[in-house]
Design a protein that fits this description.
Layout (H helix, E strand, L loop, with lengths): L2 H10 L4 H17 L3 H23 L13 E4 L12 H15 L1 H6 L7 E5 L6 H12 L3 E4 L1 H4 L6 H13 L5 E4 L16 H15 L6 E6 L7 H4 L4 E4 L5 H11 L10 H7 L5 H17 L7 H22 L1
Parallel strand pairs: 2-5, 2-6, 3-4, 4-5
Antiparallel strand pairs: 1-3
Helix pairs in contact: 1-2, 2-3, 4-6, 8-9, 11-12, 11-13, 13-14
Length: 327
């Protein structure tokens, strides 16, 4: 049976797990006969870990915080790819390099090298850090472990460090994307006079844990407040990526993408992009979403400049609210 026929059968078996596994096994055997051992091994690994990921939410015992009984993290599976995110060429190039190194880790291992696995994403809120982690999860094929800091942080002496240890013990034998969002909560500078001794010990413990991690997973720490992080933490990461506010070209892409379901022929998109200068992708998405809601409720099919201009003004006020709170 030729490879094209096998691929057709594989796609046709979607939903029938037994048939899917049988056809996938045939494809792997064929690659082994062709001496494509690296590809065959990768395909076996993907099948194994995808199968484990489907069982994870049901059968794996997610560790909990002893004080409140909250789970320390959530396990999620994503099917996102590059079409789901608008980023600069520089960021995409960095992410593609991370993906390539992890997909070809066997080749690097021959030379005693390891792929980039410890990543820091930083920058203003709403600029794609979480979405980028989901895209990496979807493309590499590793389930995403989203760390819940409401469960990790404990008032019990030593319990927060213990919760972190439970997380690292859980991930050491699998292949995961581990996403520590709002990382500054536990990564604050140890000489911060406003932090008590317990959190300083947590930082020390985390440094030891990340230094001693030798699993195959990717660890991603994300923060909107990089200035708060302990300087020693930065040296622990293989790649540090700034997710900054989008430039005009990317703002144009975001506007077009978020309004693609409606007629926009009358819109001056470059002018709108200029008016959205200084806004994050999340801001632009909210402007477009609120505009669409208004169009739907007005029973219209076209969007006009005044529609979006109104929502831009509303969002500008929303962005300014934190300034009023500080006064």
């Amino acid at each position: 049976m030729d490879s094209g026929t096998k691929l057709r059968k594989l796609i046709a078996s979607y939903g029938d797990k037994a048939e899917f596994m049988r056809v996938a096994g045939e494809i792997i055997e064929e690659e082994e006969r062709k001496k494509n051992n690296l590809l065959a091994r990768d395909l076996k690994g993907i099948l194994e870990y995808q199968n484990n990921s489907l069982k994870s939410a049901k059968s794996l015992r997610i560790p909990i915080d002893r004080e409140r009984g909250l789970p320390l993290f959530e396990i999620k599976n994503f099917k996102r790819d590059w079409t789901d995110i608008v980023i600069t060429n520089k960021i995409r190039s960095s992410l593609e390099e991370i993906i390539e190194e992890n997909n070809k880790k066997d080749i690097l291992n021959i030379y005693g090298l390891k792929p980039k696995q410890k990543l820091m994403f930083f920058g203003p809120p709403g600029c794609g850090k979480t979405l980028a982690a989901q895209v990496l999860s979807g493309i590499i094929g590793y389930p995403l472990i989203y760390i819940r800091f409401d469960g990790v942080i404990s008032s019990y002496l030593g319990e927060t460090a213990g919760n972190l240890r439970k997380i690292f013990d859980f991930i050491k034998d699998g292949r995961w994307i581990i996403f520590f969002d709002e990382f500054d909560i536990i990564g604050k500078q140890r000489d911060d006079p406003f932090e008590h001794g317990e959190m300083k010990r947590v930082v020390n413990n985390f440094l030891q844990m990340i230094d001693n991690f030798y699993g195959e997973s990717l660890i991603i720490c994300a923060t909107n407040h990089q200035q708060l992080l302990d300087p020693a933490l930065w040296r622990r990461f293989d790649e540090i990526i700034l997710f900054d506010l989008p430039n005009k070209d990317n703002r144009i892409k975001l506007i077009k993408r978020n309004l693609r379901a409606f007629k926009t022929a009358s819109l001056d998109v470059p002018l709108l992009a200029e008016k959205m200068d200084g806004m994050s992708p999340a801001d632009i998405e909210m402007i477009c979403r609120n505009t669409i809601k208004r169009i739907i409720l007005d029973n219209r099919s076209s969007i006009y400049m005044e529609d979006i201009n109104k929502q831009v003004s509303v969002q500008r006020e929303r962005i300014r609210y934190p300034e009023y709170v500080k006064r």
